[in-house]
Design brief:
- The chain contains eleven helices and 18 strands.
- It is α+β, with helices and mostly antiparallel strands and 337 residues long.
- It binds adenosine-5'-diphosphate (ADP) and magnesium ion (MG).
- The site of magnesium ion has 6 residues, from loops.
Length: 337
């Protein structure tokens, strides 16, 4: 890769920027904080995320990409440009060395939204812009040789969506997506606690429960004390929640992901199923780290499910590295433009 090739994973939870000879150069939450009256940027990324749920009226904290679609177009564009500029400035890439940028976008984006991301990237200073589908990028990042005529099944679980695809020869054979992923897991925990304990907790607290004690396969001797507000008394209250309760809370979402995996496999041609059974299913994205999830899918499908090395950065890595193999991708129709 030449010095000025950049891969960007524009995820619903995190934006990750990868440069082949440098690795990850930026990894920040997809969050932007602006002045509510003027829309001037106050902070972007990590600093903005810290403000979620804690802001006074004059500050708006926005997650512009939600559930795999662009919820706030102008803010998504501002955020993307801000991150690109940050990377380009840090690297000291001048106007004469404008980078080629490959962007991986959430699966639910319409053609118009993809075009808009492409345009924003160009305006931020890219010489050439390419948009890649997430399963292909995830596969490359997970170390799969996509030019081979063998089938691979990829399950990417991000913040907004779970994307399941079977790929072969650099192209997608089958691809399905549902809006059940990391954010939904947090929501499930939040709703469960509200219903069972009359306690309202924040999104960040729900995520903390998920990260620290959740297990959807087996019950562990783990618990956590969390604080929130009692619905009835409206006073602060703390409760203890245990591992088994997280399994109960997440059961429906886990089953939806298992069902979708099963459906995709059901539509896969037999030759490719044989390849997948031999190599195993690969999981990527932060959501695949939910404890016990891989095992649950494995038990249902009867095929080994492997979590990729560094699953949260796979897509970004694959996105950066595919700039080297544009020819393979261009041969597979509609995978890139
Ligand atoms: P996106 O591609 O949508 O930006 P990511 O692949 O970065 O999303 O994944 C973000 C999601 O992964 C978040 O919901 C986060 O809570 C979840 N996540 C990250 N680490 C873990 C973990 N160890 N266990 C469970 N969930 C995790
Ligand atoms: Mg992702």
């Amino acid at each position: 890769m030449s010095r000025a090739d950049i891969g960007i994973d524009l995820g619903t939870s995190n934006v990750i920027v990868y440069i082949s000879d440098k690795g990850i150069v930026l990894d920040e939450p997809s969050v932007i904080a602006v002045d509510a009256r003027t829309n001037n940027i106050i902070s972007v990324g990590k600093d903005a995320r810290k403000m979620l749920g804690k802001t006074p009226k004059n500050i708006k904290v926005i997650r512009p990409i939600r559930k795999g679609i662009i919820a706030d177009y102008a803010m998504a564009e501002t955020m993307l440009k801000y991150f690109i500029n940050k990377v380009i400035e840090k690297k000291g890439i001048g106007i004469f060395l404008m980078p080629r940028i490959m962007v991986c976008v959430p699966s639910g984006l319409t053609a118009i939204e993809k075009k808009a991301v492409e345009e924003a990237t160009r305006q931020a200073g890219a010489r050439e812009v390419y948009i890649i589908e997430e399963p292909i990028a995830a596969a490359v990042g997970a170390g799969i040789d996509i030019s081979e005529a063998t089938g691979s099944m990829i399950i990417d679980i991000g913040g907004g969506t779970t994307d399941i695809a079977v790929i072969s020869l650099g192209g997608t054979v089958i691809s399905e997506s549902i809006k059940v992923a990391g954010d939904k897991f947090d929501e499930d925990i939040l709703k469960y606690i509200k219903a069972k304990y009359n306690l309202v907790i924040g999104d960040r607290t729900a995520e903390k429960v998920k990260l620290e004690i959740a297990n959807v396969y087996e019950d562990e001797e783990k618990s956590i004390i969390i604080r929130g507000v009692d619905i009835i008394t409206r006073l602060p209250k703390a409760i203890k929640i245990n591992c088994y309760e997280t399994k109960e809370a997440l059961e429906e979402s886990v089953n939806q992901i298992i069902e979708l995996s099963n459906r995709v496999l059901g539509k896969t041609p037999p030759e490719l199923i044989a390849d997948i059974a031999e190599k195993g299913i690969i999981m990527t994205g932060g959501g695949c780290l939910l404890k016990g999830l891989a095992k649950r899918i494995e038990d249902k499908l009867g095929i080994e499910v492997k979590i990729a090395d560094n699953p949260t950065i796979c897509v970004a890595k694959g996105t950066g590295e595919t700039l080297n193999s544009l020819d393979i991708l261009e041969n597979a129709t509609g995978k890139i433009r």
